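Render this sequence as a predicted structure.
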Amino acid sequence: MTRIGFAYNPTSDAAIELRERATGWAAMRDIDHWAATAADMDAMSDGLPGTDVLVVLGGDGTFLRAARAVAEIDVPLLGINVGKVGFLSKVEAGDLIRVLDRLRAGEFTVEHRMALEGRIVRAGSVDAPERHIALNDIVVARGSLARVVRLDVSIDDSHLATYIADGLVVASPTGSTGYSFSAGGPILDPTARNLIVTPIAGYLTTIRSVVVGSTVVVRCLVKDAHEALVSIDGREDVPLAVGDVVEVRALERPIRFVQPEGALPFWDLLRKKVELLPS
């Protein structure tokens, strides 16, 4: 390892303190390094080329912002959790230096995670679709008013269902522990290549959550809505109009996760994280 990046949450005192410890560790070992806030896409884009690993200091929100950057510039990610639960992080803050030493010694493997590409096709528009990248999920949902939306959902050319609901979640396996699970979807092994399609509070629907292959396109047409939006990993909301279509497909290139030697397997980590959730 000759160059390492640190993406951090600038609103967290704990993350800032970890950044200082991490950059100090790199400086003492003469390792080329840089640091930027995970939300600063320009700084991330400048720093990522030639970087061997990007260490993310923060919670899941910080990790998802960093994942958007490495989806465009392929660099493996390692999350150091300073949030509350941190489903996406393999390492807790107290293990920072020990894990950095393992990275330097090459004591790690790399795991591939499927990400999502969302395209918004505007009704009647001849412009190119708006493109968005997500690691966890792409959600089509009602707006702030408590009024349901009517969504026509298809898998490739096959009509799946017309949902009258609060919305629809299309999740990756990594995102299967998030919003999709809360809405009744299954948890998948994070290395799988599937899309999970889950309605949110569907009214009188017989088709709940379905799991489809990675080669299909899930299309969601806004048939009727007082107000609707599409949410990308819960970090970016884009307004939708009646007639707009949101297309979701698997991103061809995976996002790479660093697995330090001795890290908990996913199902053990899941059980441990769930035990931390408030009852």
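Summary. The chain has a mean pLDDT of 92. The first strand starts at residue 3 and ends at 8.
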